[in-house]
Specification:
Radius of gyration: 19 Å
Number of strands: 6
Shape: globular
Strand content: 5-15%
Oligomer: single chain
Strand order of the largest sheet: 3-4-2-1-5-6
Structural class: alpha/beta
Distance between the termini: 44 Å
Largest sheet: 6 strands, parallel
Bound molecules: 3-methylbut-3-enyl trihydrogen diphosphate, magnesium ion
């Protein structure tokens, strides 16, 4: 064995995944598309295109590995602040993704759900969302949650409004409100909380992503920009997750 072989062996050994102890839900903040493009002298939209390719690759890999739930942050409620041209390019890309999801993901058994507010999305995108969600509703492989026009604070405000309405309508009384009721009125109803939350591109913040749901998620930060994120990088995150001791406040 050469020195390089030994180093590779050591590395792959360290990143070995225990297939019986996979995180049930992985959430990813797909960040750094713009910086990836800038480094190459390309427009930001080229970074988003490259990022969409990474999403296809990672979704397929996670599904084959046996991950049950994958949530990806595609567009935040704050991303509308970006130049109109970039917002338009992102919406176009999302539309293309929804149109071609089958070909892109290459797996007929993936269930796709979109989480976030519908307010502000075009009728065209809303139609595509309906089509994809109903076409994949009965699939029982990986569930891919795409956080689109999603913000954790907006989601919580929306949940409070829904609960208040139920109280006004006599469906609920104030004393019945507990954590379960709040959870059930979020966009992620029925979805388990993320076990592992990954942010790439060197940033170390949540940026309004799954703030309620990630209360006890294990966090993993990677410096690589999203278009360069590889299946090896995902393995590294999972392997590290598997070494952690989750206490949930206990001992
Ligand atoms: C992530 O990449 C994609 C979205 C937020 C839509 P960015 O566009 O944020 O890329 P950076 O962070 O500016 O490099
Ligand atoms: C978070 O990335 C949103 C998405 C990845 C969709 P941002 O690039 O918008 O976050 P900030 O502005 O760096 O916090
Ligand atoms: Mg960013």
């Amino acid at each position: 064995m050469s020195y390089l072989d030994i180093m590779f062996f050591k590395k792959s050994k360290n990143n070995k995944i225990d297939i019986n102890n996979l995180p049930n839900h992985i959430a990813i903040i797909m960040d750094g598309n713009g910086r990836w493009a800038k480094k190459r002298g390309l427009p930001r939209s080229a970074g988003h295109k490259a990022g969409a390719k990474t999403l296809e690759k990672i979704t397929r890999y996670a599904g084959n590995l046996g991950i049950r739930n994958l949530t990806v942050y595609a567009f935040s409620t704050e991303n509308w602040k970006r130049p109109q041209q970039e917002v338009d390019a992102l919406m176009e890309l999302l539309g293309e993704y929804l149109d071609n999801y089958k070909k892109l993901i290459g797996d007929d058994n993936i269930r796709i759900r979109i989480i976030g507010t519908k307010v502000g999305l075009s009728d065209e995108i809303l139609d595509k969302i309906n089509v994809v969600e109903s076409a994949t509703a009965k699939n029982d492989g990986l569930t891919l949650y795409i956080a689109l026009n999603y913000g954790g604070r907006e989601e919580l405000v929306n949940s409070v409004k829904k609960i208040a309405k139920k109280i006004c309508d006599g469906e609920l009384i104030v004393d019945e409100i507990d954590e379960g009721v709040v959870s059930d009125n979020l966009y992620t109803t029925g979805c388990p909380e993320p076990d592992l939350l990954i942010r790439v591109s060197g940033e170390r913040r949540l940026s309004n992503f799954l703030m309620w749901q990630s209360a006890y998620s294990e966090l993993w930060f990677d410096d690589v920009n999203w278009p360069d994120f590889s299946t090896k990088d995902l393995n590294r995150a999972i392997a590290d997750y598997q070494k952690r001791n989750r206490r949930f406040g206990g001992v």
